[in-house]
Design a protein that fits this description.
By secondary structure, this protein is an all-beta fold. Helix content is about 0%, strand content about 15%. The strands form 3 sheets. The chain has a 4-stranded mixed β-sheet. It has a 3-stranded antiparallel β-sheet with strand order 7-8-9, with no helix packed on it. The longest helix has 5 residues. The chain is rod-shaped.
Length: about 280
C-alpha cells in the first residue's frame, strides 16, 4: 500500500523456475553511486516510466546506436542547442513536415548542393531580398512561365547579352518609352576597310545603322552603311538607295503643301509650286 501505514522499503527475491524475479522498492528516494564504470545488459525488452521530469548530464561524450528503428514523440515543445558543429547523414530518404510556420536564421554563409533535381512549390507568395548581388548560372536551358503579369524594376542599369538569336513575340500591343537616347545597331556582312558598320556606329549618334553589304574594301572601305536617325525634331534616312513601296497611296505633307502618289497619278498641292524640269 502506497502512502499508507505499512509503507516501507522492500527487497524481494523470486526463485520459482520460469518466474525468477528480483524486485526492489524504495519508499521515497533511491540513490545509486558508482565510483568507476557501470555496465547494464538486458536480454530482451526494457521499459522505463518517469511520472515527472528527467535530467541527464554527461560531462564528456555520448554514443547511441539503434540497430533498427527509433521513434520520438514530444507532446509539447523541443529545444536543441549545439555549441560546436552538427553533421546529419541520412543514407536513404528524408521527409520533414511543419504544420504551421518555419523560420531559419543563418549567421554567415549557406551552401546547398542537389545532385539531381529540385522542385519548389509555393502556394501563394514568395519574396527574395538580396543586399548586394544575385547570380544565376544555367548550363543549358532556362524556361520561365508566368500566368498573368510580369514586371521588372531596375534602379539604374540593365544589360542583356544574347550570343546568337533573340526573338520577342507580343500578342497585342508593345510600347517602349525612352527618356533620352535610343540607339539600335545592326552589324553583319560589313566591309573589312574603314567603311565598316562598326566604324560608322562608333560616332555615337542616335540612329539605326545597318551595313549596306558593299565590297570588301581596300583601305578606303566599302559602301557606307545605311542609316536611320530619329530624335525629337527630325527623322533622317541615308542610304545608297531608298525604297518606299505602297499598294494604294503615299502621302507626303509639310505644313499646307502635300504630294500625293497613287498608282495612277502624282498630285502636288501647295500655295506655290516650283518645278525644275
Amino acid at each position: 500500500m502506497k502512502n499508507g501505514p505499512g509503507d516501507a522499503n522492500a527487497l524481494r527475491f523470486e526463485d520459482k523456475a520460469g518466474e525468477e524475479q528480483l524486485w526492489i522498492h524504495a519508499q521515497k528516494d533511491q540513490l545509486t553511486e558508482v565510483e568507476n564504470d557501470e555496465a547494464k545488459w538486458v536480454g530482451r525488452d526494457r521499459e522505463k516510466t518517469i511520472d515527472r521530469d528527467e535530467t541527464n548530464t554527461i560531462h564528456r561524450d555520448r554514443t547511441e546506436t539503434v540497430d533498427r528503428n527509433e521513434k520520438i514523440t514530444i507532446h509539447g515543445w523541443r529545444t536543441e542547442e549545439v555549441d560546436g558543429d552538427e553533421t546529419i547523414t541520412i543514407h536513404s530518404n528524408r521527409s520533414e513536415r511543419v504544420d504551421h510556420d518555419e523560420k531559419i536564421s543563418i549567421g554567415d554563409n549557406r551552401k546547398e548542393t542537389v545532385g539531381k533535381n529540385e522542385t519548389v512549390k509555393i502556394g501563394l507568395t514568395r519574396q527574395h531580398t538580396i543586399g548586394i548581388m544575385s547570380m544565376l548560372n544555367v548550363g543549358l536551358v532556362r524556361i520561365m512561365n508566368v500566368g498573368v503579369a510580369y514586371s521588372q524594376n531596375i534602379g539604374m542599369m540593365m544589360s542583356t547579352i544574347v550570343g546568337m538569336t533573340q526573338t520577342t513575340k507580343v500578342g497585342q500591343s508593345q510600347k517602349t518609352t525612352v527618356g533620352k537616347d535610343y540607339v539600335l545597331e545592326v552589324r553583319g556582312g560589313a566591309a573589312e576597310g574603314g567603311g565598316s558598320a562598326a566604324a560608322a556606329a562608333g560616332a555615337g549618334v542616335d540612329h539605326i545603322v545597318a551595313p549596306s553589304g558593299g565590297g570588301s574594301g581596300d583601305g578606303g572601305g566599302g559602301d557606307a552603311p545605311s542609316c536611320i536617325k530619329i530624335d525629337a525634331s527630325q527623322i533622317f534616312m541615308e542610304s545608297k538607295k531608298i525604297y518606299l513601296n505602297a499598294k494604294d497611296e503615299i502621302l507626303l505633307t509639310v505644313g499646307s503643301s502635300t504630294i500625293k502618289l497613287t498608282p495612277s497619278q502624282i498630285e502636288v498641292l501647295s500655295p506655290l509650286d516650283k518645278l525644275n524640269c
